[in-house]
Amino acid sequence: MKTDAKQRATLTRMETAHAETARHLAVIERQVEARAERMTTSSRVKARQFGRASATWSRADERDVQANVAALRFARRGEIDALSQKLARQAGAIAAHCVRCRINEPAGEGVS
User: Could you read off the pLDDT of 25-50 as tens digits, one per residue?
Assistant: First the structure.
């Protein structure tokens, strides 16, 4: 019974580390997108008409944002790739641990 508790504790630690890595990757993605938007806004200096019927974001702006996102992702590709690979390794380790220890249900559920 004690080993079952240890196995579940190990699984919980592994899942927590996986979630933290996923959060870190999501933070990087948000940073890239926010930076790309700021870069587009500051680079496209033009007279914008503000009013009810006027759009403040054009198709050209959207193309620039996408280009900036691609450039920023390329610049941070090492970090993004490392975290993506780490996520894959962690997911594999979690799956292997569950198979090895015969754990089928998530850690939050108890055995009835």
Answer: 999 999 999 999 999 888 866 545 55
- Residues in contact with 72: Cβ distance below 8 Å, sequence separation at least 6, in sequence order: 32, 35, 36
Residue 5 near residue 110, CB atoms below 8 Å: no
C-alpha–C-alpha distance, residues 83 and 93, integer Å = 15
Q: What is the Cα–Cα distance from 38 to 54, expressed in whole angstroms?
A: 21
Domain locations along the chain:
2-44+60-101
pTM, entire model: 0.76
How do residues 76-105 score in pLDDT, each as one tens digit? 999 999 999 999 999 999 999 999 988 775
